């Protein structure tokens, strides 16, 4: 719940500074503690969304850089596709910065989702503020945030000199300054 609150605060700061990165800090409600002392509550269901893992499985596999792009193409046409790409680029920029700043770990294809309208967002925040998973004293986190070739391809469509990718980098830089 704290992580979602931190994402909401970051989103508010960016919005106050006229930087809309289309974050999706879904609603969370803590309702108590169970008999084992574990926190319990409810989460908002984000409709019309799929995990990156599901998108990869249904669109050619995890090593295919066109998977997310194919997903956006399947669910959007014409101007809706253009808007979905912008939603994806903005929200991907926001979450790249936010997950780095907050130190969110355990990022994998089942913890990252995309809506059919292109909004990119993270779920499952059990490891944050640098509390990363390790196994046999080996840290499992290989990078401070996730940005895959499939994410880049869905922004630049494989172009070498892409105005959309340049704009994505500008959003990342602007978000990093607040």
Automatic annotation (TrEMBL):
Q: Which UniProt keywords apply?
A: Kinase, Transferase
Question: What GO biological process term is on the record, naming one?
Answer: phosphatidylinositol-mediated signaling
SMART domains, alphabetically? PI3Kc
Tell me the GO molecular function terms: 1-phosphatidylinositol-3-kinase activity; 1-phosphatidylinositol-4-phosphate 3-kinase activity
Record-level GO cellular component terms: cytoplasm; phosphatidylinositol 3-kinase complex; plasma membrane
The cross-references to Pfam families, in alphabetical order and at most eight, read: PI3_PI4_kinase (PF00454)
In terms of domain of life, where is this protein from?
Eukaryota
Occurrences of domain PI3K/PI4K catalytic (ranges): 1-178
The UniProt record lists the keyword Cell division: no
In terms of PROSITE patterns, this protein maps to:
PI3_4_KINASE_2, PI3_4_KINASE_3
> Record's SUPFAM superfamilies?
Protein kinase-like (PK-like)
Record-given protein name = Phosphatidylinositol 3-and 4-kinase family protein
The record lists the organism as Reticulomyxa filosa
